[in-house]
Amino acid sequence: MRVLAFLDGTTADPEAPLLRVDDLGLLRGDGVFETILVVDGKPRELGPHLDRLDRSAAMLELPEPDRAGWERAVDAVINNWTGGRDMALKLVLTRGNEFGDGTPTAFAMGLPIADKVLKQRAEGIAAVTLERGFEPGLAQRAPWLLLGAKSLSYAVNMAAVRYAAREGADDVIFTAADGSVLEGPTSTLVLVRDRTLVTPPSNIGILPGTTQAALFRAAERAGWSVKVEPIAAAELPDAEALFLVSSVRCVTRIHTLDGKQLNDSSALLRELTALYESEY
Ligand SMILES: Cc1ncc(COP(=O)(O)O)c(C=O)c1O
């Protein structure tokens, strides 16, 4: 089950050819995207996702996204979805065709949630720390590196996940050159320390997570402290709990880090999942 829609609200067969071979999204990964969780026909954090699409597009100097058009495309996908309760909704915006008139390519696509993600939500994951090779000040100094943009150039992120799989792990926590922690290839790291939720600041060159923001909002309301501050990789093995959070995986517990079993955080997972779900 897949649904494909465009910014004018029309839909098309997701199996039919759509892109031209000179689409710069295809040729150079030159574009941006978002992935949104839709549950029972309701998109979660749609506003923050569209805000982030705007921010990513601005970083790549793409034309400003047409917000009303994206909302039409989102509605069209949701209204035509006949799959299960949960859907992953991808928004894709590329620079368009190299030999074209400069019109960006834009579409929204609804997809089922992969079984692997559901299994990881339920059972937790083993993660490895892997170097990402830059220090936290680089994002400001070198805006052309697009650190913190949700660009279509995710080949490095996917390569890191494959590397982790060869090491027997499910996912990755990227570390910076100064020994601090960045993010997962498709997720935000949240650490628990003394009933405080901690996540690294996005200005070090990572994506500001919509799921982390929703979780922190709910946790603060329930009396938790929350902090956005640098986290040393050396602190990870002794944390009360580590979670990778993102739109589709929601809150996923890390049970093993770099081959070492962590504290049992099942009770904290239940508590944080209930808090996160209370937002919707
Ligand atoms: C690199 C990266 N960091 C963090 C996230 C988490 O963002 P969100 O919670 O908005 O899905 C993602 C999402 O895919 C991501 O690709």
Looking at this protein, list some descriptive labels.
D-amino Acid Aminotransferase, Chain A, domain 1; Aminotransferase-like; 8-stranded mixed β-sheet; 6-stranded antiparallel β-sheet; alpha+beta; 26% strand; binds pyridoxal-5'-phosphate; lyase; 8 helices; 280 residues
Q: Any idea how many domains?
A: 2
Average residue pLDDT: 97
Number of β-strand runs: 14
Helix content: 25-40%
Q: Please report the first level of CATH classification, the CATH class of the largest domain.
A: Alpha Beta
Small molecules (ligands, ions, cofactors) in the structure? pyridoxal-5'-phosphate
The description of the largest β-sheet is: 8 strands, mixed
How many helical elements? 8
Structural class call reads alpha+beta
Tell me the name of the CATH homologous superfamily of the largest domain: D-amino Acid Aminotransferase, subunit A, domain 2
